[in-house]
Amino acid sequence: MQNDIQEVLYSEEQIQSKVRELGAAVSRDYEGRNPLVICVLKGAFIFMADLSKNIAIPIELDFMAVSSYGNSTRSSGEVRIVKDLDTSVEGRDILIVEDIIDSGLTLSYLIDVLERRNAKSVRVVALFDKPGRRTVDLNADYTGFSIPDAFVVGYGLDYAEHYRNLPYVGILKEEIYSNR
Length: 180
Ligand code: 5GP
Ligand code: MG
Ligand code: MG
Description:
Helix content: 10-25%
Strand content: 25-35%
Number of helices: 4
Low-confidence stretches: none
Number of strands: 9
Mean pLDDT: 94
Strand order of the largest sheet: 4-3-2-5-6-7
Structural class: alpha/beta
Bound molecules: guanosine-5'-monophosphate, magnesium ion
Shape: globular
Radius of gyration: 16 Å
């Protein structure tokens, strides 16, 4: 697994310290409220677990799975809900937890869905952001790291369902996906 990584971008320690900062900011901003924190599966599952432990106010958690990528490294532009929420979002303050924002298509679709279901507010926390790749106008309310246009894996992020269990985030060697 390690041999497939061209360069480690952020170590486990660097990620943990950023996640603590993000948790503190969320705790401060949502003080006195009871937000519904939504994990976008699968990529955000580790971030959600670590972030939720660093949120010091009462929250509820739910999970949603959307698909847009298949096994490729570029968004198809088509977003599909694969697993929907168990909880009603009507009148709720929603915080979407996303692993990475690339084109922005997935999130703009999700925000739209939640607003149409009459959420009271919808905000986004994304651990990684590739601002250079946006095709729709969208920004996270909380961002961990801005990264260049490279395909990264680890800390929940996959290539063809592999590498999610790496504790750090790194750039995948191009030969891994160009050979397929
Ligand atoms: P978007 O709709 O913003 O183009 O893409 C969002 C989703 O694509 C992310 O939630 C993530 O699942 C996937 N994605 C985008 N960039 C990367 C990347 O560099 N590495 C991995 N593993 N997934 C990515
Ligand atoms: Mg994602
Ligand atoms: Mg993926």
